[in-house]
Input
Amino acid sequence: MISRRTLVKSSAGTVAAAALGMPAIAQAPKKISFLTWNIIDQEPMIRGWIARFAKDRPGVEVEWLDKKGPEIPVFYQTQLAAGTPPDVINTQGALGLEYAAQGALLDLTPRLKDEADVRARFNADYLSNWAYEGSNYMLPFYITKTLLFYNKPMFQKAGLAGPPQSFDEILASAQKLTASDASGFLTLNFDWLYWPLYAMNEVELLSKDLTKATFNSPKAVEVTERLAKATEAGAINKIAWTGRWVEPNGAFAAGNVGMLHAHSPAYFFVKGQGKWVTPETLGVAHAPGGFATPNSHGLGISKASKSPDLAWDFLKFVTNEGAQELGVNRKLVTGNVGVDTRNLAELEKNDPLVHAILKTQLEHTDKMVGNWRLGNDSRIKEAFWPELQNVLLGRKDAKTALADAERKVNRELKRG
Amino acid sequence: MMPAAGRVEAWRDDWWRRRRTRELALIACFLLPSATVFFLYRVLPLGWNVLLSLQYWSPLKPARWAGLDHYEEMLLHDDVFWQALQNTLIFIGVSPLAILLALGIALLVNSDLKGAAIYRSIIFLSYPLMTVAVGIIWRWMYDERGGIINFLLRESGVATKPIPFLQSFEWALPSVIVAEIWQVLGFYMIIILTGLQSIPPHLYEAAAIDGAPRWARFWRITLPMLKPSLFLCAVVGILNSLTSFDLVYIMTNGGPGHATELLITLIYKSGFGQTKFDYAAALTVVQFSLLLALTYLANRAFGGNAGALQR
Amino acid sequence: MPAHCSGSGMRSRSTYLRHAALTLISGVMLVPFYWVIKTAVTDENIYAYPPRLLPENPHLFNFVDVWYLIPFPRYLLNSLIVSALVVACNVVFNAMAGYALTKRFPGRQAILLVFLSCMLIPFQATIIPAYLITAKLGLLNSYLGLALPLLSTIVSIFVFKAAFEAIPPSLVDAARIDGLSEGRIIFRVLMPLSRAALATNVVLSFIWSWNAFLWPLIITREPSMQTLPLGLARFLSYLEDTTGALYAFAVMVLAPSIFVFLMAQKEFIRGLTSGATKG
Output
């Protein structure tokens, strides 16, 4: 609805421009590029966003690139080295922090300070996931964290009342669920997704200032030994420590694993492959203690961007106007509080199971673990995980492995 | 004034010299296009890697001199490097077996056997398949639940429990090697077949007339004349661990633990996974030196000049 | 003659053995393929247990999906142009280089080793410098840029070298006396006698350029310049389901390479066969 005043003003402006002989849109089209992580199935939606964004901003073009997860580091690093990184980028997990530490991302703190209303849109706990050394580098695109899925029929058959409420109960329930062709517990193991198992035993990976490894404690040794023993006994399915995504989720989908500790997207994979999954048969719960590892997607701006203001504009657009559509289409939680509240209310009516799952993503957000603000997260992971895996698969004893891991982690931390 | 004979000789020497220069110039010209491509995309990048291996560098920070720090780190403190090195050597060590198998197949197929063309095509079929697709299909074949190999082993009674091929520390590397051999067999076969085509038939005819038995014909004629092709196969075999990158990445990603980690996957992970490009460069230099040494030895073993028969 | 009689008896037995060996090997090579094709024509979950040996409800819709879900004709055209460029240049450059390496000249062993060592540098270690160099040349996002790193390959050079060396030098000398230039010698005299090497060059350079994935990923920015294997990535759905569409696509990417190989097949038939195998 254009008011008469606006109409007069704009036509006067055009006439004036024409009269003065100025070319109406003198600037070259401002172009920004937008790199997303594996969201090509939502092509119509994103093209819609771009169209709407560009419509209100004449002369603006948005180039959209989508790459699969394994391809993004190669692509982005090469573009960084060449000085032409995409303006707005989407990363998963701690990769955003690593790029921030590298100096590749624009510090968003000043803008968030100036526009407090934008900052208020987002769930503060999730937003802080991308705060490196006190500065914000990314806004949430969509968020996930781990929860416990369980196979209700299997629980009933084993005589278990409900999901485990403590670490001991996890192991005990897993043991009860074990049979010749069934196992009790599975977890995903990439990106620290298994860390809640340690957090609920009060094991800290690093000191508060992130300079020293603190996980080599008798408690951690004990926890690891118990996990290894349970794995050997078959209570914990070995795939938990050897698989990545397809294998563990597929095993749970096959219907003979009692519990799956994974983040919310696992539901869609399991539902797709598991014929037994219905609201009555799939149980959803928090891990004991409410501990969870987040694995969220963030959006940031490259420091080398030539149009940072336009990029920031786009960022705000995507995480506000775009978030609504994204949350509905992909059935996920976006981190935008208003959008999520609305979407969850809808889901409660239409799909109670998904509603239950997504609700867990917004509860206990103060208990998120496994998300240290490390600029060299992948190196720390690489120093720690193989040693742990050795113990869990029975190749090494816990004491030696944790000592070796401590040595390696401290080396990486010192290197900085 | 020179005597007439001397003048002719001088002119002839001159002619030879000019001709020789012309010939050398021509050789240089003929080598130029290929050499340019290699210079741009192999030599220069290698130089970049060598330089980078001596610095501390990441894409956005200025470089600092590191000297041999990365090499020290690699050789003295990185047990993953030694594991990857061992795995790479195992990969390389298996290739002679694959080449022998391909030699046998090539000989079988390179005959007037009816349907030889069909066998040839079937055996070659695996090579043009994208390595990513090969990795995916073999990962499924080895799967404990739905994989065909475990299924057949259980049905035939050879195994009572499914064998976790790609998840066990013992079986993972051999499993990947089997998949790799499956794919590269056709390549060896085609190289050897090409070599077999260039053996002049009259050699065999002469040998037949002399009454030489079949095995002698093979040892004295076929095998020596196949030296260049076999040398090429040997070099490609040395490169196997490089070309298997996609296979390892898809099937096991270096796991479990680092049981299937190869130098090439370590290079890639250090560079693009952990943003340690300088360390990855040092690994590249070390790997290159290792492979160069092996290639040099192979060249010597085949008599130099890439296995060609001296004329 | 008795030798002949027993000869023919032995021949049929050795023929039988040869067929048996080749059939066994072919079977082993084919099993994975059968599964690729079976999955490509059904909607089965590949990880279901027990694995079904025969396809259930086969259909060709996966292939149709592939055609429509991505700009297939455009990607196909891009791949064809790049591969044509690569094959043409490979044949010419490699023949020239192979021929040059058959001659004696000072430093030949060194040059040989330098060429061989170029093979030992893995692509993954050259990504960033290769990108920067291509950017400097102004060839980003272009067909020539896609083809450039593959315009010549070491293995193929040595295939030509080996083939040229097997040709009697008297033929070459005769041609030279007839006044042919060196270039003509290669293409009029040596090549016709090295048809197998030429076929191998064509087949291998086609396969390597057709299947290239990482380089096109880095070098193309616009979707309209992407090659066929990049389109493959689309079928690894965001949940990493291994669906029939993925395998249908793998089959479609594979088909042209097989076609090229079949066309080149006849060059491997020629030969000394009877001489080598007669008892």
Chain B has a mean pLDDT of 87. Chain B has 13 helices and two strands. Residues 70-130+173-307 of chain B form a domain with the MetI-like fold fold (CATH 1.10.3720.10).
